[in-house]
Amino acid sequence: MRCLGDYVLGEFLERPNRFLARVREIPSQTEHYAHVPDPGRLRELLVPSVEVLLARSDNQRRKTKFSLVGVKAGSIWVNIDSQLSNQLFKEDYAKIERYRDFKLLKSEFTFQKSRFDFLMEDHSNSSAPKKTLIEVKSATLVKDHTAMFPDAPTARGARHVKELTEALSVGYNAEIVFITKRNDAINFTPYREMDPNFYEALVIAKKTGVKLCAVVCNYDPIESQELTIIKEIPIFGV
After folding, report:
1. What residues contact 230, with CB distance under 8 A and at least 6 apart?
2. Which CATH entry fits the domain spanning 7-79: 1.20.5.420, 3.10.20.600, 2.40.50.580, 3.40.640.10?
3. What DSSP element (H or E) covers 3?
4. Domain-by-domain residue ranges, the chain?
C-alpha cells in the first residue's frame, strides 16, 4: 500500500505517556509534541535521539500537529501506525498464499461483545465456502530476527482470542494474523513473558482450531513510500 503524506524527519526525545511523544523536527530543530498511534511500550524502538518519521496533519481540531508513524531501527524503518495494519491486510491479503481463495465480506464484524477486523469467506473448498473471522495484530518488536507480540500486556487481545475460540463452536472458522511491519524478522513467537494470559489463550485457541498466521513486511517511507507484505513466516512456541 502507498504511504503518501506530508512527512518530515525528526528526533525522538521522550514519551510522556502512551499516546504522546516529544520530538525535534529536522533540520529546523523545532520541538513538537506528536501523537503516537501505537499503544505498545515500544521501549526497544523509542530510545532518546533515535530518528523518527513524523506525519503532519492539517486537522485544526487535533491537539498535536504531527503523528509519529515510523522509527529507524539500525538501517531499516519500522512502521508503528497500528491503524494501517487492517488497511494493509485488506489490500494485500491475496499476496499471502493461504488467503488467495478468500473473499472479503465485511470489515469490523461484530461477534458477541467484540468487533473483529474482518469477516471473510474461504473458497478453497468451492462446494462449501466457510465464513471465517479474521483478527489482525500489529507486531513491531523483533529480537534476534524473531518477531514477538505483544510488547505490552493486552487484556483486550486475550479477550479477542477467547471469543475467536468460542466462534468455532457456532460454525465459524477463525484466524489471527500477526503483521510485522518491518523486514528483519524471519520467524514469529508470542511473547509469553510479557503477557502470560494472552499466551495461554493463544495456546488453547490453536489447540481448539483457531489458525495462526504471521507475515513480514517491507516499509520504505522515503523512496518508494510503500508498506507491503513480503511473505508468511514460521510461527514457533505455541
Report:
1. 183, 215, 216, 217, 218
2. 2.40.50.580
3. none
4. 7-79, 84-232
Which CATH code of 3.40.1350.60, 3.40.1440.10, 3.40.50.300, 3.90.226.10 fits the domain covering 84-232? 3.40.1350.60
Q: What is the mean pLDDT of residues 221-233?
A: 94
State phi, psi for 79 to the nearest 5 degrees: -85, 125
For residue 187, the cross-strand partners are 146
Q: Residue 189 carries which side chain, given as an amino acid letter?
A: T
In this structure, which long-range contacts are made by residues 195-198, counting pairs with CB atoms below 8 Å and at least 24 apart in sequence? 195/150, 195/152, 195/153, 195/154, 195/157, 195/158, 197/153, 197/155, 197/158, 198/150, 198/153, 198/154, 198/157, 198/158, 198/161
pLDDT-wise least confident of 50-64, 135-149, 180-194: 50-64
Q: How confident is the model at residue 114 (pLDDT cuts 50, 70, 90)?
A: confident
How many Å separate Cα 221 from the centre of its chain? 17
Cell digits of residue 169 = 463452536
- Whole-model pTM: value is 0.95
pLDDT at 148 > cutoff 90 = yes
- Name the CA dihedral angle for 93, 94, 99, 105, rounded to a multiple of 10 degrees: 70
Q: Which helix H or strand E contains 165, and what residues bound it?
A: helix 155-168
Distance separating alpha carbons of residues 22 and 50, to the nearest angstrom: 12
Tell me if residue 208 falls in helix, strand or coil.
helix
